[in-house]
Amino acid sequence: MDVRVFRGSKQEIAEGLAQIDGEIREAIVFIEGPSDVPSRPGEDIFAEMTPFMANAGGADYSRDAIYSRLEGE
Fold this sequence. Notes:
Blueprint: H1 10-18, H2 63-67
């Protein structure tokens, strides 16, 4: 599986997708709402992606754990 990220206008993203050879089975699209609508505090914008996440049991995914060196590194 190949992963690609397209950024730009709708037209630029559509053109990039159209140029891909092979079958495209899924796409994740981030849609920005109007700037006058405030986001809800504490809202998890990635909640609907949870079924697609790979989580190891007992792993510490905190920012401190990710960016701290372990003993021996």
